[in-house]
Write a structure and sequence with these properties.
Radius of gyration: 40 Å
Number of domains: 5
Organism: Pedobacter psychrodurus
Strand order of the largest sheet: 2-1-5-4-3
Shape: elongated
CATH architecture of the largest domain: 2-Layer Sandwich
Structural class: alpha+beta
Enzyme class: transferase
Number of helices: 17
CATH class of the largest domain: Alpha Beta
Protein name: histidine kinase
Catalytic activity: ATP + protein L-histidine = ADP + protein N-phospho-L-histidine
Largest sheet: 5 strands, antiparallel
Keywords: ATP-binding, Kinase, Membrane, Nucleotide-binding, Phosphoprotein, Transferase, Two-component regulatory system, Virulence
Strand content: 15-25%
CATH superfamily of the largest domain: Histidine kinase-like ATPase, C-terminal domain
Length: 517
């Protein structure tokens, strides 16, 4: 069967010879119609070939190229004038030239070649992965007169396959459980580490709900996580408890990321679960020790502070300036020790679930001024500035919020240069009062900001190595605010200071006498 271009040429030749052929009007009309149809088909075919994303090439049985479309130029880098009339071997790497003879032999048997994956060479010498579909071109007698070849660039596909295999190998060899699920919490993948960690095989979990490993008292975590991930946000190092097949519980740290399609729409979730049972056991032992030591230290420290206060009073009466100064310094240090021990005891109470809130209405601005004044006595190296609402009644636990403020102001003092300003603001925001503590200190790197509220986390830099601390203050702040349904936020850049902020609910409505009291 001839191609459309040959048919068009044949019909045009018949039209030129119509007087010799002595065609009547009816035969001429049919000839014109046939020519119109053939020209339309030819134009359509040429348009399809030129618009195709695939290289479409034809060649004769001597492997000489006879046609070359626009995509062939894009994929291989040669224009049509450079290729038509030359051998197809120009595109074939030397170590693959045997493929051409094998392809021609197969085509001479009348066989079509579908999706033969190989490599071809561009004009610049680089190799491109291609998938070839090759068909014989037959004349009207069924004799093969040429070859039609469609070459699809599969470089991206091959790269994706290699990356996919590499990723699969990483997932399977990981010590962490790596799980994926859809937006209905149905598990879609389950690696070997997940099987070891939770006791379920992949066959037992794929197609089932993730709730199968979530303890009944923690099922509310899943919708909260889904809500955050549907917004495209990641969940980092979320520590929780999950349940094994045998019913035992395991402490895990979860990092969860959204899986998005090409348009950016969230279509699923990827979850990495790390077994932190051993870490938790070590932390619990540490907490028990700290709680015990702190409790035992509190009583003698209280007595020591009382003795210092009495001695200071006596020294002032005798007008001994040296002893008065020394005892004043000792009293400041006992206050610092007392605060440290109080923080340790509160951490211990948090771990045991014994920290409860005693909420009431109180003036937050008054508490801020009081905490700032106490901090100025402990360290007079900074200027304390209060701005904002003078009257800010909130409903919260005054003692616990005092701990929050004391820790945040103390941190601002520790990490700020002498003589710099610490600004504390209290502003009304609808049904909340917002508090911010801004310093002019060394600032905090973005990576440290992600971890700084974890227990015992210390920022390790040259500037901080001589600054004392145990890394519990900010964890205590974060935990207390969480009990209040609030959260601590930080804005900071190295060298530009830091601002810590939180919000508290405005006072519950009642009589003015209730609020004033």
């Amino acid at each position: 069967m001839k191609d459309n271009n040959e048919i068009v040429a044949l019909i045009k030749d018949l039209k030129r010879r119509e007087s010799d052929l002595k065609l009547d009007n009816e035969q001429l009309r049919h000839l014109n119609l046939a020519l119109t149809i053939a020209e339309e088909k030819s134009a359509m075919l040429n348009s399809i070939i030129e618009c195709s994303d695939d290289a479409i090439i034809s060649k004769n049985l001597d492997s000489i190229i006879t046609s070359w479309n626009g995509s062939a130029e894009r994929i291989f880098g040669y224009v049509a004038d450079e290729m038509i009339g030359t051998s197809i071997l120009k595109l074939i790497p030397a170590d693959r030239e045997h493929e051409e003879a094998e392809i021609l032999a197969q085509l001479r048997r009348g066989e079509r070649i579908d999706h033969f994956e190989t490599k071809r060479q561009r004009k610049d010498g680089t190799l491109v992965d291609v998938s070839l579909t090759i068909s014989p071109i037959l004349d009207s007698n069924g004799v093969i007169i040429g070859v039609s070849k469609i070459a699809r660039d599969i470089t991206e596909q091959r790269t994706a396959e290699v990356m996919g295999k590499r990723l699969s190998a990483i997932i399977e060899s990981s010590d962490d459980a790596i799980i994926s699920k859809d937006l209905n919490s149905i598990i879609t993948s389950w690696n070997s580490a997940a099987a070891r960690m939770f006791g379920y095989s992949a066959d037992e979990m794929i197609g089932n709900s993730i709730f199968k490993i979530i303890p009944p008292d923690r099922v509310d975590e899943e919708p909260k996580i889904l809500s955050q991930l549907k917004k495209g946000l990641r969940v980092h190092h979320f520590e929780t408890v999950r349940m094994r097949k045998d019913g035992t519980l395991i402490d895990v740290s979860l990092t969860i990321s959204p899986i998005k399609d090409r348009s950016g729409k969230v279509i699923g979730l990827s979850k990495i679960a790390r077994d932190i049972t051993e870490k938790k056991q070590i932390e619990n032992k540490k907490d028990e020790f700290i709680g015990l030591v702190s409790h035992e230290l509190k009583t003698p420290l209280t007595s020591l502070r009382s003795y210092i206060q009495v001695a200071l009073h006596k020294a002032k009466q005798t007008q001994s300036s040296f002893i008065s100064h020394a005892l004043s310094k000792a009293e400041v240090q006992t206050k610092k020790m007392e605060k440290m021990i109080t923080d340790f005891l509160n951490i211990s109470r948090l771990q045991d679930g014994r920290m409860t809130l005693e909420q009431a209405n109180f003036n937050l601005s008054t508490l801020i001024r009081s905490c700032a004044a106490d901090a100025a006595i402990t360290s007079s190296k900074h200027d304390m500035v209060f701005q904002g609402e003078e009257t800010a009644y909130v409903y919260a636990d005054e003692e616990k919020i005092s701990l929050v403020l004391t820790n945040l102001i103390s941190n601002a003092q520790k990490y700020s240069p002498r003589g710099s300003e610490i600004t504390i603001r209290c502003d009304r925001e609808d049904e909340f009062f917002s508090v911010s503590i801004q310093d002019q200190g060394i600032g905090i790197a973005e990576e440290d900001q992600k971890n700084m509220f974890q227990k015992f986390y210390r920022i390790r830099t040259e500037e901080t190595r001589l600054i004392a601390g145990f890394g519990i203050g900010l964890h205590l702040v974060s935990s207390i605010l969480e009990l209040h349904g609030s959260a601590i936020t930080v804005k900071s850049r190295p060298g530009e200071g830091s601002t810590f902020s939180f919000k508290l609910n405005a006072a519950i409505s009642g009589s003015m006498e209730d609020i004033i009291v």
